[in-house]
Each structure stands twice: as C-alpha cells, then as structure tokens.
Amino acid sequence: MQNLLAGGVGPEDVTIRRRMLDMQADRALAEGYPQLARNFRRAAEMTAIPGPAMLEIYEKLRPNRSRYQELLALSQEVIGRYDAPETGAYIREAAEVYREKRLVRED
Amino acid sequence: MSRSKRFEVRSRRAVNLDTFVSEDARFGLVAMAGTHDPLPSLTVVGGRIVELDGRDEEDFDSIDRFICAHAIDLDAASESMEMDSLAIARMLVDIHTPRSRLVRIMSGCTPAKLCQVVSHLNVVEMMMALQKMRARRTPGNQAHVTNWRENPVLMAADAAEAALRGFDELETTCRVARMAPFNALALLVGSQTGRGGVLTQCAVEEAQNLLLGLKGLTSYAETLSVYGTDDALRDGDDTPWSKGLLASAYASRGIKIRFTSGSGSETLMGHDEGRSMLYLETRCLLVAKGAGAQGVQNGAISCVALTGALPEGVRAILAENLIAAALGLEVASGNDAMSSHSDMRKTAKLMLQFLPGTDFVTSGYSSMPRRDNMFGGGNFDAEDLDDWMAIQRDMRVNAGIVPITEDQAIAVRRKAGRAIQAVFRALGFPEIRDDEVEAAALAYDSDDMPERDLAVDIAAAQAFLEGPLTALDVAIALHDAGFPEVADNILSMQRVRVTGDYLQPAAILDSGFDARSAFTDRNDYLGPGTGYRLEGTDWERIAGTPQQRSAEALVPLTSGAPGVELRPRGEALAGSGGEVVIGIGPAFARGLDHTLCGLSHGEVLAALSEGIRSQGLEPRVVRVLDSADCGMIGFEAASLSGSGIGIGLQSKGTTVIQRRGLAPLNNLELFSQAPLLSREAYVQIGANAAAHALNRAPQPVPVRVDNMSRLRLIVHATLMHKREIAAIVPHGTAQDLEVQFVH
After folding, report:
1. Which residue, B8, B13, B44, B649, has most beta carbons within 10 Å?
2. Chain B contact for A57 (CB, 8 A cutoff)
3. Pick the CATH number of B554-741 from 3.40.50.10150, 3.10.180.10, 3.40.720.10, 3.10.20.310
C-alpha cells in the first residue's frame, strides 16, 4: 500500500507476466488439464499483444468478419510480430475451418 | 359440467401457473435421451478422428471440428469408448473410484457417450456423483447485485452485505448500459468492504467487459456464451475459436473467466437440429473444455423454464451439471432464473445442487428483492434468505451462505455507503449525500432510495471509463479518506492477477487472498468420513441463526405474575361431601405462570372453579409434588376428593377429569391439546367434573381445531414439561393450598 501511495505502482505492475502464465500452464498440465494448459500458453504469448490489438484479433475471428486470406495473414502477423506461435497456429486452424464452414467474409 | 371443488381450488395453486409441455422432437422439446440423439461412437485413423457419434468427418460442423481438434483426449478415448457406459455410470457413484480416475475416463468420451453414461443414473445417484466430482472441495455460492435505479450507494451496500453473508462471487449488470463503470466500481468497493477476496464481475457486452477488467474494476468474467449448434453459435456472433481466443485474452491480463452454456438455449433459438437439450449442452461443454475454459455456468440458466417444462427436465439439468463437473470443469449451477411459480417446486429443484454441493450452488442468488433484479432472475432473493439458512441448519449442509444479524447487516451497509461516498468525492464524481448513505443502510429496495440525477451519473461513468483512472486510484482514494482496510483489499484484488493462481479451476479467494481451487482445495471425496464435511466453527455458524434461541429464552423463568398466590397449609387429606379436587403440577404458579393457550394460572383456576360452582359443588386446590404426569396428578386428586372426582392440571395447561377407582391412564375426559383451550373451555371442564360427581350429563367442551399449534408450541411444551419435572419432590405428599387470586 505504501508503495502505491508513493506512486510506485502502476497498472502494469498488477498484471500477469508471460513467465507466470507458463508456470500456471505447467501446473495445469501436471494436474491433468491439457486444454487449460494450452489456453494459458496462448495467454502467455498474448501478454505481448497490446489491448486494442487483442480486441481486433477477437473481432476478426467472429463469424463472417474476415476473408480467409486475411485470417492467414493475421496468423502470420501474430507469429512474426508478437512471437506467438501457438496463438498463430490457433488462428490458422480457425481459418481452415471457417473457409469450409462459410464463416469467412464473402464478397 | 359440475366441477370438483378441490380441482377448482388446486387450479389456482401457484404450480398450475407453470407451463408443462409434452415431449416433441419436431420442436426440439426433448430434455434428454432423445430418439434423434446419436449413439456413441468414435473412429480414429492415424491419430485423427474421422467419425464422431455417427457423423463422418466430411459432415462435421464447426463444433465437431473444434471438439475433435481440442476436447477429446485420444489416449483416454481408446479406453473410454470401449468401456460399457453403465460401468462408467457405476464408477461415478462408487465411493471407491476417485474423481481423478473419472475425469480421465470422461476426457476420452464423445458427447453421445457422456450422455449415455449419465442416462443410467437417477437423481439420487447423480447427486452422489456430483458430490465427488465437484472440482473444489468446499462448496460456494454466487450472488446477483443490481438495482433498477442504477444507484451506486445501494449497490455498494448490497454488495457489502452479500460479501458478509459469505458469497464468494458477486455479479452485476446494467439496465442502463452506460452505467456499467459505476456499477462495477460500486460492486468492487462494496464487496471489499464486506470481505476482502470476493470476486466481482459486471456482465455487459464483451468488449466492455474486457475494458472494465483491464481497469481493475472487475476480477472475472462469466458471460462468455457458447451454444451447441453452429447456427445457434452464429446467432450468438461467435465461433468456438473466437470464444477460445477471448478466454486467452482475459487470461493474458490475469483475469479469471468461465463460459456460459445451459440446456434449452438452442431450442429457444430454433436451432436444435432435432437433438435433445442435454445432448446439445454436452457439445457446449466440450467446446468449453476444448477452449481451455476452467469452468462453466450451466444448468439451463435463463432457459430453466423451458427445460423444466419437459418431463425429466429437472433431471436433465442436474445431469448437465454433473457432466460439466465430470469433465473437470468448475460449475456455477443455475438456480438463478425464475424456475417456477411454486416455492415447493423450485426449492425441490434447488435441492439437487444444494445437497451435494457445487462450486457455486447458484449462479446468481438475488441478494436484493427480485423487483430490483436486472438479470430477469431472482429465483431466490433477499426475502428467501432465512428459509435458506433454516434448510442449511436442518440438514447440516453448507450451501454457501451464512447467517448474519440485523445489526451486522446495517453496519456493513453503512460502511460501504460511506466508502463509495468517499471514492466519489475523491475522484470528482457526482456527490453522494449522507442521507443516501443512511437510506442504503436500511433500504428494502431501490424505491427506498432518494433519486439521483441519472444523466449526470451516466456522463461521469462514461468519463471514468474513457479516462485514465483505475482501481489503483480507487484504492488510494479510500486510503486517504480513512478506509485503509478496504483500500488494502482493493489493492490485493489487483495483485492476485500477478500470480494467476486464481485462474486455476474453481478458484475463489479466501480472506487472506489465497486461491482455493481444484488444485489447492482438492475434492478428495471417497465416501463417508471423507471429503468436505460441515464441522467445527463453520457448522456452529450455520447452526447459530439469529432465530435460534436458548431454552431459557424460549421459556423464561416465571415473570412472577401467575395471577394467583398459592400458600401451602399442610398435607392434603381425603375430603368429604360436595367437592371437586383440582390437582395442580409441582411447578404450577411456582416457576411457571401461564398455560400454552396464553391464560395465566390464576385465570385457569378461576375458570375451573366457576364451572365447578355452577353445578353447586366446591373446588379444592391441591398441589401434587411427586409427579408431573397429568394422569397421575388427576389420579391423586380423585383419590383425595370427597366426591371421588378430581381434575389433573399440568402447568402447561393439559387437563384431565378423573374418577377415584379408575386406573391413572383410564380417565373420564382428557384435554390433551393445551394450546387449543380457552377460558370458556376451562369453565366447561369444571362444570363437567361437577356433573360427573352429580351423575348429570356432561356437555361438550368447546375446543378449537388448529393443526399448526403443535408446530408452533411443541418446543415450548417440552421445555415447560422439563421445568415441571424438575420441580418434582420424590415421594412428596400432596399439599393443601390456600388460594388468593391476584389482579
């Protein structure tokens, strides 16, 4: 509290770091929760993605928002720009399904 | 046609306001085990699922694709899908099969397999299974905190009281969407005033939800909805992948989430594809699991009256809670939306989650009166709290709420009101006046609150959202305004994001801000003597409701006003001639002073005497010392009576007319329902006793009929009788008494 009052604590100090999420992922896997672990690993990667960009990615993954190529490009960007291979793969996987299931934008 | 009067009366019962509909697959109106549900099957080729529940890969919809890619553990599947579903069902109920073994088996099951397993269980067996499969050892509960006026003071006060009552999570929403930031703020300040560590959420649109979380104003999100068919999911403007990404987005900021599903939603939306509600819900649960959600809110939720309208709908709802738990997910188990007009019926449904316990027995107990519930909920509300407390105490069950006294409620509400007032002042928000704080402390609902200028509040709320202030600034403001503990709590709520412990399945925070989750509060139930037991101070707290009174308080020592003074004047001897002896118990007008019907002992003696005299005989009052039994007292009175007729009268008012020569339990007339007697009745009893002595015909004694009297007074009767027994003098001889009425 004293630290906070002295101005030594900001919002960036009370958020989770990549390393912590990776540790929680390890714990989840050890406890028999592999999907939770994968979620935490994606989240660990996403700590590097700024809030507004993150919301944009979410929007683009909603039904009929993006063309197939746009999703592929998004996948590449996430991998390259934010060092987020699992998140990128997840988006790529979505892109393939969306194309087959008509969840991409058609125009 | 002439109507049956009973059918007519019943037609007006609350339960007959509910809708009951017969099964009809054409409209998706099937709760579980539908004829169009697929049979379980799974074909794996080269590590890839090529057929799921009778559907080939090329016919997979997006949900099938997601489930196959993420949810089903192929390792476990090779064993699980070969196991007999009945065998798995038996293992769910078997006290020797641990939770972990079953989570593993279930992780390899297809949706149809999961449904087939639970279809073998009756509701008692499902409850046994749920007790074991619940993720967190200790049951918990969640409350709704909303009000129609969007009044932040009332919200803070309600949140504080709910937190003090033991709710682990509080959820708010908005009638006026742009008030969200203030609603979230009020919930945060109020909850941390009641108890540090209570989790809070504000259920609004997805992007807003995230924004509030980023500002530290909420600590979790719940309304990440999933549906069990592609069309329904599309109507919900999401896909399994977008929902999964959203889940990771929250986690990347250290914020806990759970998904929301619930049977009936696909049917309501017209996209059931002819499948049963439970089958579609099971697909939702596998989407949730596949996305890596730690838990779900399920159990029909808003659609409870739809699922519940069907035969075994309530059974299906319990089944969906069980499947979720068996998949390892945290479960917030419905009971929030109005499920029935009938209190009996909705409480019966509640018991299916209440008795075994779930991670959150309700996914929204309306902590305020349901008029103020902006979720369209309020199945159980502020008025039902004492009933809930009584049932916990009756059954020795912890269903996540604890009793508090009126003083405690008022004090915490007032403190929360002052705290939010201080925050508003420090951050330059519209003023909260002292009279608003006081009104919130004592309010029934938002009608009791002075009006605020909603437009001004909305503008300030929006500025707050768009501006730079966060929960950290709120903590500083509270510290400076003299609320250091609340400030500390709010700061601690921010800090829990750093470690992410509360992202673990079924995590809540205790008052030390430590996460109690499936990993740290492990459900180790393996039958009697194991798992969570309500014991020690937790049990004392639940047993000790404010309504509970000590024996001394229920039947206090005499007020000293029996209305008569009875002075002993020696041993009672056998009488002669025209008398009726009234035998009284050892504590009569001496330690006890009123009967159960409310008359003073003096009034009873006066009435009996009047009746005796009306027939021309004289009353003689004698105190029996060696027995408290009504029959024995009457027996001794008759033995001493000159006419051979005696009256036995216990302090609690039970009366008997006895004749000398008859066995003690074989009497002339017995008035065993003491609460139903009256002055007129006692006069007639006296007259009847004299009539028996004179061989005249006795008259019927006017006795009220009241089936509630035993319910109301059996405890009092017991305590009074114990008092009478305590006054016994063993082998004491009956005393003759001088009677002096006192007014």
Report:
1. B649
2. yes
3. 3.40.50.10150
